[in-house]
Give the backbone structure.
Amino acid sequence: MKKEHPVARGKKRKSTLREWVEAIVVAAVCAMVIRTFIIQAFRIPTGSMRPTLIEGDVIMVNKFIYGARVPFTGITLPKLKDPSRGDVIVFVYPENPKKDFIKRLIAAEGETVEIKDGTIYIDGQALVDPVFNQVYYYNRGGFGSEGLKLTVPPESFFVLGDNSASSQDSRYWGFVPRKNVLGKALFIYWPPQRIRIIK
């Protein structure tokens, strides 16, 4: 039997190691691209979106639907659609860029928002969609006072938590700039008993 030369064995080991390293690097790059531009998982830390989302839910967020941002640049990729009323969105918290928040989009630029007797009014019309009228919205914070009518500024959104009694949202700190929006919440995928589409 012909013996394998030691140098040949060393080259074979290096070749195998190189293949493993290349595979790991490619997988890491693919994961980073997917997470940055396509879809990303987020864990829900608080009950501000109850009953839609509860503490510990892990959700998948579509990042390309509104046009994903290229990191460290002001560039945004082409969008499929604009955020619309009722969407549950993830965004960079305007008062602390190190935090991501999740809330429901209530109004877009140019629309007037008022909270009266637990109901949301947009341009003077009550929201009657079941998504909104199953929640009692409290008049709290400097932007949510009784009788206050707010017009959403350009390139901005007004957002609220579904758990109105326990949510730090636009009633307290104002509007979400469009550039802060990261994506649309699609579905809960963990824990298994909570798997569902987010509406």
